Amino acid sequence: MPETTARAASAASASASASSASSASVSSGAVVAESASVRGRPARIALRGLQVLLALFFGIASALPKLVAHSSAVESFDELGWGSAGMYAIGALELAGGVALLIPVLQSVAAMALSALMVGAFVVQVTVFDGQYAATPLILIVPLALIAWARRRHNADLLRLVRRRG
């Protein structure tokens, strides 16, 4: 019985040490085990779901009509004066960004790139199309910015990969 009590006291002491070390690393900005807590799991699942929804939107609803030269996309790009080359380029960028939203090391960069593309879409909507659908790119920038910020630690991983290959 005394041996069990000693083990329990030792475990409690180790737990307290880990707890104080954990709070020390929080103040230094390091990632700790608390980020994987039960409370954070629903947020991570929701963020991943948001990424999947945005990837589907950019891949299917936005890029596909451009890449298959749907009449509505052709008309819009002809009105812009960009023709089919601009339409295919924007479609390819949207598709690539949508796919990259699903690749862990590219998530943050993809969200930033798609945000920049949405800023351009907003400017075009306001200047060429009299703001008819100007709210759509602005609405999309909000979750993209959230993804870029929440997944920002992957940028260091990407940078390491690029440096290793270069």
What's the topology here?
Elements: H1 2-27, H2 41-67, H3 71-80, H4 83-100, H5 107-127, H6 135-150, H7 154-165
Helix pairs in contact: 2-4, 2-6, 3-4, 4-5, 5-6
Output the keywords:
0% strand; mainly alpha; DoxX family protein; 7 helices; signal; disordered N terminus; 166 residues
Task: Describe, in plain words, how this protein is organized in 3D.
- It is a multi-pass membrane protein.
- Residues 1-24 form the signal peptide.
- Keywords: Membrane, Signal, Transmembrane, Transmembrane helix.
- It is found in: Membrane.
- There is one protein chain.
- With 166 residues, the protein is mainly alpha-helical.
- The chain has one domain (43-165).
- The chain contains 7 helices and no strands.
- The protein is globular and about 45 Å long.
- The relative contact order is 0.09.
